């Protein structure tokens, strides 16, 4: 599970808006010397806001500015990355193949490849919009109870 520390910027009855500075993954990544995100994080931290489900917790126990720890399961990151990169790529390859089968010229084949890439990006955007409230794909708030469950799960694997 990828753990990140953030600051609460808004409180809602069902969840919290948490602003994170994305640095923790860079410190443990093997490709940090060749990664553009790592270099940008060193010059100026990139902040992002995430909506975190309270999952039955009382929102009254949190205050604006509190530091909280959130976690994203590894399989969500891996599957999401695979989906986001592969769908546009496969759409581009498929549209290029179809254009080639139709004996279109090189310029039209390149345009079809670009159109396939854009179509793949639109499909990813539409799918992400459809699953935006799926609780299995949301970051979770980490507390002592959650840490204990995670340790037990890792021990069973």
Overall description:
The protein has 157 residues and is an alpha+beta fold. It has 2 domains: 1-72, Beta Barrel (OB fold (Dihydrolipoamide Acetyltransferase, E2P)); 73-157, no CATH class. 50% of the residues lie in helices and 21% in strands. The protein has 5 helices and 5 strands. A 5-stranded antiparallel sheet has the order 3-2-1-4-5. A hairpin with a 3-residue loop joins strand 1 and strand 2 (15-21). Helix 3 (74-101) packs antiparallel against helix 4 (106-130). The radius of gyration is 20 Å and the shape is elongated. The model has no long low-confidence stretch (mean pLDDT 80). InterPro entries: RseC (IPR026268), SigmaE_reg_RseC_MucC (IPR007359). Keywords: Membrane, Transmembrane, Transmembrane helix. Pfam families: RseC_MucC.
Short key terms for the protein model shown above:
single chain; 157 residues; alpha+beta; OB fold (Dihydrolipoamide Acetyltransferase, E2P); 2 domains; 5-stranded antiparallel sheet; 5 strands; 50% helix
Biggest sheet details? 5 strands, antiparallel
* Global structural class: alpha+beta
Distance between the termini: 14 Å
Helix coverage percent: 40-55%
Shape, principal axes of CA atoms: elongated
- What value does the average pLDDT take? 80
Strand content: 15-25%
- Order of the strands making up the biggest sheet: 3-2-1-4-5
One letter per element, helices H and strands E, the order comes to EEHHEEHHEH
Low-confidence stretches: none
Summed up, the helix count is 5
Number of domain units: 2
Number of strands: 5
Rg from alpha-carbon coordinates = 20 Å
């Amino acid at each position: 599970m990828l753990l990140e520390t953030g600051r609460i910027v808004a409180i809602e009855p069902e969840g919290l808006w948490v602003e994170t500075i994305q640095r923790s993954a860079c410190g443990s990544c093997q490709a940090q010397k060749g990664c553009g995100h790592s270099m940008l994080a060193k010059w100026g931290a990139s902040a992002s806001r995430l909506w975190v489900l309270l999952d039955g917790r009382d929102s009254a126990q949190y205050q604006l500015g509190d530091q909280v720890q959130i976690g994203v399961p590894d399989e969500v990151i891996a599957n999401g990355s695979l989906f986001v990169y592969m769908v546009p790529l496969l759409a581009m390859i498929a549209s290029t193949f179809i254009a080639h089968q139709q004996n279109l010229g090189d310029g039209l084949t390149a345009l079809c490849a670009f159109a396939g890439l854009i179509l793949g990006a639109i499909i990813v955007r539409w799918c992400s919009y459809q699953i935006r409230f799926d609780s299995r794909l949301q970051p979770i708030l980490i507390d002592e109870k959650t840490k204990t469950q995670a340790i037990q799960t890792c021990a069973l694997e």
